[in-house]
Write a structure and sequence with these properties.
about 290 residues; alpha/beta; Dihydrofolate Reductase, subunit A; 10-stranded mixed sheet; two-stranded antiparallel sheet; about 25% helix; about 25% strand; globular
Length: about 290
């Protein structure tokens, strides 16, 4: 059977809402997304963008297999509802932020709504148009070194606007590679020093992200986001999988490189719980600093 004669994928089963106490304003979802997800409410803080995180984890807390043979979707089992939610959050965001390690782990990806859930591309496009946003969110990559392959599709295709936030040395390294005009480079740290979370957010806001910033990883960067008190809300999918770890494959959790408990644990508030099959989709609100 050729690709042109392949049957269309089966319709997605709607998310089942088990609990919903989310604050904020209703997002005007197109009919297809409203029927799939239900109401989506997001707060709008005064004077700054709302910062969201989105991750999927196994039952034993693994967020990445660190296996070149598997993509990031292996954690969710390539669950279509999880991917649809990822696309929905990208569709309402002004910018999608990932660290360089996440880019290298999924080097062929475009961080766009349709890039993760193409079946809903038209609905995502209609949603962005209704929100008055450009066709694609700004794809933001964080790297202190500037060691990025600018021939990757996200940089070379011209299909998405890109912002690279780096150090002064990293910016010089990237400038020598002559990035295309749709790839902007901002030096947010001196020399070769790491870029702070606040430096990243300031650069993204300066680039025009006025309403919502979506952070998709990786675990070390997310640890820094939590340490900075910069996250308003976490969308966390719990996949019904046990992945395991051993000495050769330590495998990262949601947060790496930061320690909170027992001295200063973070205790967010559950605001929503949905399910699709055996996958659970949670939302947790954090007190930001």
């Amino acid at each position: 059977m050729t690709s042109s004669s392949m049957p269309p994928p089966a319709p997605l089963a709607p998310f089942e809402t088990l609990f919903d106490d989310t604050p904020g304003t209703d997002i005007p979802l197109p009919d297809a997304l409203a029927a799939l997800y239900g109401p989506l409410r997001l707060p709008a803080p005064a004077g700054r963008p709302y910062v969201l995180g989105n991750f999927v984890t196994t039952l034993d807390g693994v967020v990445a297999l660190d296996d070149p043979a598997t993509g990031g979707g292996a954690i969710s089992g390539y669950n279509r509802n999880d991917r649809a939610l990822m696309g929905l959050l990208r569709a309402v965001a002004d910018a999608v932020v990932v660290a360089a390690g996440t880019l290298r782990a999924d080097a062929r990806h475009l961080w766009t709504p349709a890039g993760i859930s193409p079946d809903l591309a038209d609905a995502y496009a209609a949603l962005r148009a209704a929100l008055g946003k450009p066709p694609q969110p700004l794809d933001v990559f964080v790297t202190a070194s500037g060691d990025l392959d600018l021939t990757l599709p996200v940089f070379a295709s011209g299909r998405v606007p890109v912002l690279i936030v780096t150090s002064a040395d990293g910016a010089a390294r990237l400038a020598a590679k002559q990035p295309p005009e749709w790839v902007r480079v901002v030096a947010a740290a001196p020399g070769h020093e790491p870029v702070t979370v606040r430096g990243v957010l300031d650069a993204v806001i300066a680039a025009g992200a006025s309403e919502r910033i979506l952070i998709e990883g990786g675990p070390r960067f997310m640890g820094e986001v939590f340490a900075a008190g910069a996250l308003d809300e976490l969308f966390l999918t719990l996949a019904p999988q046990i992945a395991g770890r051993d000495a050769v494959h330590p495998r990262p959790a949601l947060v790496e490189g930061q320690l909170f408990a027992p001295a200063a644990p973070l205790w967010p508030t559950l605001t929503s719980l949905k399910r699709a099959g055996s996958h659970l989709f949670t939302r947790y609100a954090f007190a930001t600093q």
